[in-house]
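step=predict obj=Alternative ribosome rescue aminoacyl-tRNA hydrolase ArfB n=133
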Amino acid sequence: MDSEKIISELNYKAVRSSGAGGQNVNKVSSKVVLSFSVPASAALTDEEKSLITTQLSSRLTEDNILILQCDEDRSQLRNKDIVTRRFLQIMLEAVKPQKVRRPTKTPRSVIKKRLEGKRRNAEKKQSRKRPDF
């Protein structure tokens, strides 16, 4: 995955931020919306595209477009930088191969300890009973 090529394929759009901020919010378009089309990308291989679509399925639109936005800062340039870094981090995590889970067996000592504890508890309760003659 070549990050330089992917960055060149990103589409940015500046939008007015929502929320409090008064006159600055009304005048300045500081919020940045990033969109990236996974199927149209030339920088990704077919394997990477399929990995990304499965890993990020909940974040993609119906057309497999990833949309991220940032309005953390008052500066449009800083918001663009933040959203680009966030995008690259998401992509790297999606492409990273998942660890294979190897099922483990409960150790004998743990089983023995649990049964011993149960036996001791049963004896304790048994000793509390009234003796029958």
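step=describe
Helices lie at 3-8, 23-27, 46-55, 76-95, 108-128.
step=end
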